[in-house]
Amino acid sequence: MHDSIEIEEIKKCSVQYILAVNDTLNVISGKWKLPIIGSLLFGKKRFKELQRDIAAITPRMLSKELKELELNSIIKRTVYDTIPVRVEYELTDSGFKLNHVLEAMVEWGVEHRENVLNN
Amino acid sequence: MHDSIEIEEIKKCSVQYILAVNDTLNVISGKWKLPIIGSLLFGKKRFKELQRDIAAITPRMLSKELKELELNSIIKRTVYDTIPVRVEYELTDSGFKLNHVLEAMVEWGVEHRENVLNN
DNA sequence: AGAGTTGCTATACTAAAGGATACTAGTATA
DNA sequence: TATACTAGTATCCTTTAGTATAGCAACTCT
Questions:
Q1: Which positions in chain B touch A103 (Cβ < 8 Å)?
Q2: What is the pLDDT of residues B11-20, one digit of tens each?
Q3: Which residues of B touch A94 (CB under 8 A)?
Q4: A77 and A65 Cβ atoms separated by less than 8 Å
């Protein structure tokens, strides 16, 4: 249709296509990653702030997910040497760019829900 | 347009935003849904064709995933009264539109991989 | 008769994801 | 001394996702 040549080429090779999509999928799938990324889209947050934002998450899961997101370079963790210690989490540039993906997902999700209800 | 205003409003409400994204995410997450959708993007397929396309999938998983995708109105199942019986799976309009989401995911996945390797 | 095709299902299992609850160190405040 | 705050860990348990292997009915082909 009207996509860049580079992306057209990737699509031609369905294996590469699926691999790239899987990379993205792995980064955002699971129960808590979207709520965390969603919260951080509004600005940097501390551990307890995230825990308050995401009502039902346990510290174990929050800690685990934050570590994974950091490993995948989606978020950046900064420790401040204050008393008490202060740890801030924020999206990296790459992490922030996920909102394009999320926007595509919102659009599809809304449209699909309408289609399903109207049929 | 009515649609774009609606979508803008949803984005402002982070809870709705996350719910809509989750709808989409639930439809495509898991180990086998992308390979199945990816295969069907190239046209309708029969059960055994899908099984051959997706080398490592067991019939149990293929059957399970196809049922889920059908329930979510992503694919349509058609049984032909031939001998031997012939069952064809194809993407619905809604299912086909998922490629916009997948395209956004490919773009991000490729770019992210480059960023991570170059740092 | 025996083997092969199609489109599955049944049963039993392992692995991964997630939850519940309690706990830690270091510091500050009451 | 007891309590509370920060940012997490440790341990154990349950639930969900996925795997392995076998089998079935209804046919066709050799």
A1: 11, 104
A2: 566 667 778 8
A3: 111-112, 115-116
A4: no
Domain layout of chain B by residue ranges: 31-117
Inter-CA distances, B31 with A59, A113, B50, Å: 27, 23, 15
Residues B10-68: tens digit of each pLDDT:
556 666 777 889 999 999 999 999 999 999 999 999 999 999 999 899 999 999 999 99
Q: May I ask the CATH architecture of the domain B31-117?
A: Orthogonal Bundle (1.10)
Q: Is the CB of B31 under 7 A from strand D?
A: yes
pLDDT in tens, A2-30: 556 666 665 556 667 778 899 999 999 99
Residues B25 and B29: their CA atoms lie apart, in Å, by 6
Residue A21 and residue B93: Cβ atoms within 8 Å? no
CB B38 within 8 A of CB B23: no
Pick from B16, B58, B102, B2: nearest CA to A24: B102
DSSP summary character for residue B91: E
